Amino acid sequence: MNAPAPMPVIAAALELRAVRKSFGVTEIIRGVDLAITKGERHAVIGPNGAGKSTLFNLISGRFGVSTGAILLNGGDLAGLKPFEINRKGLARSFQITNIFANLSVFENIRCAVLYPLGYKYSFWKALSTLKDANLRADEILELIGLKKRRDVKAGLLTYAEQRALEIGITIAGGAEVILLDEPTAGMSRSESDQAVELIRKVTVGKTLVMVEHDMSVVFSLADRISVLVYGEVIATDVPEKIRGNAAVQEAYLGTSLAEGAH
Amino acid sequence: MAQGAQKIVFRPLNLARCIIWSGFALLLLVLPLFFNKGFALTLMCQIGTIMIFSLSFNMLLGQSGMLSLGHAVYSGLGAYFAIHMLNLIGKGWLFPVSLLPLVGGLAGALFGVLFGYVTTKKSGTPFAMITLGIGELVFAMSLMFPEFFGGEGGVSSNRIAGEPLFGFITFGPQIQVYYLVAVWLFICTAAMYAFTHTPLGRIANAVRDNPERVEFIGYETQRVRYLVLIISGFFAGIAGGLGAINFEIVSSENVSAIRSGTVLLFTFIGGVPFFFGPMIGAVIFGFFIVVLATITKAWLLYLGLFFVMMVMYCPGGIATLIMMQFPIVKAGRFREIFPSYCLAVAAGLTLLAALVFAVEMIYHLSLEAAAGTTKAFFGYDVEVASATPWLGVALLSGIGAVLFVAARRGISTHWDRIMGDIIRSQTA
Amino acid sequence: MEFFLISLLNGVSYGLLLFMLSSGLTLIFSMMGVLNFAHASFYMLGAYFAYQISVKFGFWPALLMAPLVVGVLGALVERFMLRRVHKFGHVPELLLTFGLAYLIEEFVHLIWGRSSLDYKVPTEMDGPLFTLYTTTFPMYRGFMMLVAVLMLLAIFLVLTRTRIGLVIQASLTHPDTVEALGHNVPRVFMLVFGGGCALAGLAGVIGGNAFVTEPGMAAAVGSIVFVVAVVGGMGSLAGAFVASLLIGVIQTFAVAMDYSFVTLLKSAGFVITPDTFLYSLWKLTIAQTAPILPYLFLVLILIFRPRGLMGTREG
After folding, report:
1. ipTM of the assembly?
2. How many CB atoms lie within 10 A of CB C243?
3. Structure pTM?
4. Are A107 and B8 an interchain contact pair (Cβ–Cβ within 8 Å)?
5. Residue C139 contacts by C-beta under 8 Å, 6 or more apart in sequence?
6. pLDDT (tens digit per residue) in A210-262
7. For an interface test with C, which of B256, B308, B363 has the most C Cβ atoms less than 10 Å from its Cβ?
8. B15-324, what's its fold?
9. CB–CB of B8 and A153 under 8 A?
10. Is residue A68 part of a domain?
């Protein structure tokens, strides 16, 4: 073969190559290829049961892939546990609120900054003397608007506040790639508008991948959109093109697309 | 149930904390002035030891959500190593007796490294079962190797060994042992409290609340559990070493499932959600083991009932009951609810009396039947086989039940009203 | 050969008894997530009730009634105690059964005293079943095995042929889905807990007179049964069956073997004296190590196969 040497490509922040996942005989993810560039805000949409959450679970290491590869900044994530993937700079949030219910809001955030700041499993340092960790945790609280609720037990927060805390925990560690799983699920319109502002604010300069059902959120946030239907990506493009894509309309969007376009 | 457990205090040194800790030290210092009888001193030594043991146990249960059914392994093996060391000191080795608990602690940590590697692979219920298995394993082994474990009789020693500390402290008199326990108790309590304010200590709380999420903020939960178990084994070993000095004998009972079960029972009764809960549990332990066990053969039954009642009605333990009153006291409204509490106590005492009469009479019939059917209660002879005392029991239960219902209603209405007011005043 | 066959038979009959206990434990655990710490205590109650009933009415009514009484007791425990703490999570549930084990033992002390009971094998079964070479195999042992196998068959039929059985089976693998499908899960829980306790009670009825009926009998088998559940794989009935037989046979064989490293090395030409390093380890006979074998087995399984023999769930 004397084909010319491939051009040096800028490594994608996150890349999925022919990823498949089966549970028993059922194949949920049926060959997904996806490349997300650094700094991009990418939304994954699709009907219920399309495999969006499974895709997130594969990327974050909750499940292993059946075949195919997932690369973070060019490095293969095969066989890595969630905490190892997290240490490589990928953080995720959960669709069902997943916080430390008996710890205060501040403690929730502080837990998330400890490992990245290098305190790891230390049991010889007092938390109160860790200036950088405490400062960072307070900054994050300010950012997600929970400063007033700092010392409240996380389990006692309102739903919207818990969702904000969920995002706070996710971004607190300073990961470069952020995965948000339906961040506005179950929110009222005004709450989800605030959530969009929050997401925009906290993901500046970062790579964001989000699963979302709310089309207005998707179209106002995403640089590009991938449409996942029955475990396959049927289209990946900028929002305007997705809106006009006939296959997408037919497969999934229908009228809700028009609503989202307002 | 666990509210306020993790109230963080940002200032490293605050006044309240200073007062509490110096008060604790002062209390330890002056206690022997009031309880200076030999029996009371021994009891206080034992309670102090159990305090360290149960605090170390709660490092697992309350702080990391790990229910260990074999925690006596660490304190017991620590005790064995300490007592062998004590015997070596007696043979001329140069090592201060006052530092023996450290030997126990290191042994406890070492076995934490060994056994923890296996047990902390699991969490939740499987962890509990495996710790039970390891406990049985060690117990069975203690009977298999009499050279180290001393067989049925255990290993005994004499704590008056080596050079006296500061030239005059030989640890012969019990009061000297008391102060040794007190010093170690203070150090260990402070160290374990400090642990709760370190990165590992806090992440352990996070693992307790939500192990899955912890994996997604960069921590390996298995390693967190493993490290906490080793540290907990260290403090358990210290308790074991102190016990070895106090009793001058260590037997396979020290590593038995009974010991492991006891620490679980009393830690839980004391209150798992709060750091100091296990210390209350240790004091109650002193009451049950020493006071009640000398009065009645049925003390284990009472203990079991007490425990089951606590699990069902007050899973936060005594410590939680106390802490729940704080907001009310702070709002200055304790007086309103106090009569209902008195009523509850009266109901409890009446029901308790009925229970005690019934149990003691049945015991008398089944165990002391040969001694006739009369039983002495507080100086009165009661004819157990006749109907009259049983009618009395029924009557007492009836009165108790009525009082109980009334007290319960009173407490819940007062409680709801006061707490409602407090919450309204906070949000307003 | 004679030794081998007799030990195997004894091992299998002991293993089957273990299975009668561990099957109930496993059913309860996989359905409700509750590790019933008091399971062996219900076994003990089975034996004591059977004794009490057999004194009045004879063994055969006891065989029927005692498990029923124990089962009802179990159902009451579920209904009025466990269900109360269910909302607090699995650890309080475990603690409750832990306290219950304490209580039941003390209750037994209270009613029947602290010494062992004269609970005998019924006279019509008090003879040899057959003679193998020179050793006789008692008829009652055979009966034990028969009951265990019948019980196994009954569980199998109930689980595969009845509606409630199908619900239980579904709950073994997909507890959440079953609840979502709108089955009256609390009632199923009560039934399973009561049923599991009844099985333990049945084991007590036939184990109590085969071995000994005393207040320590619960503690004696209790932890072995937990080992069986973990080794077999938490929540796997088939695993519990295999593990029960395995542990029963291993322990029975070990108890009968008087070999140690000393004998082994002696046959290889080495002489070990009491002065040899770690002599106490070398001189241990296999029989002496019998009590720890199940636990060693447990540790090995956990290191090399954490799911257990046939388990599917990672604990």
Report:
1. 0.88
2. 30
3. 0.88
4. yes
5. C125, C126, C127, C128, C129
6. 998 888 889 889 999 999 988 899 889 998 888 888 777 777 655 444 444 44
7. B308
8. ABC transporter involved in vitamin B12 uptake, BtuC (1.10.3470)
9. no
10. no
